[in-house]
Task: structure prediction
Amino acid sequence: MHLSKITINFGSVLILLAASASIASASGITMSSKQWHVGDEITVTGDDLEGQYVKLKRLCFSPATNAGDVTCFGTWDAVNKVVDNADDPYLKRWEREILVFDVPPTLPVNGTLKLMLTNDVQDCSDGGGCITLPEEQDVVIGDFSVIPHIDEVLDASSGLPATAITAGNKYEIKGSLFGSEKQKIFFGKVTSGGASTYITWQQLSMMDITSWSDQDIIFQPSTSYDISGGLKINNTVSDSNILMKSDSENILSSNSSLMTSSVSSSSGQATTFSDVASNDPYAPAIQWAKAQGVLQGYPDGTFKPNNVVNRAEFLKIVLGAKGTKMSDTGGKSGFNDVDENGWYAPYVRYAKAQGIIQGYPDETFRPNQAVSFAEALKMAYAALGVATPDASGEWYQRYLQHAKSNGILFSNNVDVGSGMTRKDVVWIVWKLMLSH
Result:
């Protein structure tokens, strides 16, 4: 069995069921995430996620606009009059108090997650006494949105990976969660200005898009595009990952560990740190940091990529990457644990004045404390002036969601409370500088 798009009128196929479903309360039911990537593991918890008629339970994804098919887990067995969930590949666990599933590759861009549960209810409508009948109940868990992902871009005439985006040629984008309606395709050009290197984006004309489906897009550009900064799409919810151009292979590559952007390759140098191999996935970012003077190695010739960075060190790194010149005239930072004569004090004073940092409620900055992923993301986004949309949840969600949906993180599987290592620091700052 597999996830399928089905429409079932339980009132006609199962005589015992009532003619219309009722809406049940979702009080006490929680969902682990509301913004999904394909393959994400989603956990739902609650007091009763199965109903009395366990074999009739269904998990459904309904479009937010109520237009289009409802996608459901399970297949209707017309012989035995049940919904079969046993072999669905996306369902990992479904018990009374917990439901775990992987996000499938085809879903509405915006939608509502629902449980269709069947329970006994009393029917007293005829005035001749009450009878108990099974009734399907529509239990709303919550709204969700999905983030598109590009797997590859092909030259449609040859079926091979694209080497460029040239006017008149036809191209095919393969991936997932693109949505059902034509939206935006962007091409990135790496641009240098002063000490900064960033990507400027050009949108493909909507007239050049031949077809658009959830997992496949075909376009024929009327003009050629520079793709040194990659390619991305938007499905009305968010931008996809950035599919980068690999100079070594001259193709658009979805494997970030093979990626070598114009920023890292323009220096013509290889990493010279004894503990960073030339084929290390982090090597392009580390070489960029070295070439730009953002973060140097140690006297013994090592980089120590797994060393954790403290808050003072991170602040200096991100401000240095931005090209901020310290012309400190002294003064006070306002933090009672900052040595105003320390090497890091000018950076703290500058960042406080610019609203990049606020410190802790006890009026401390804690310069020697390891910088967490959450703290580092906020400081980096604020220092580099990268705008983020509002997001519900914890204070760091707006930065984390933007980082995940725009390919800023080396891996989206991160612990936001863990200390950030030197390799992840340079990776995130590098990616933000590229995309901004």
User: Anything to note?
Assistant: The longest strand covers residues 131-147. Confidence is low (pLDDT under 50) at residues 1-25, 255-270. The chain has three domains: 4-146, 149-255, 267-435.
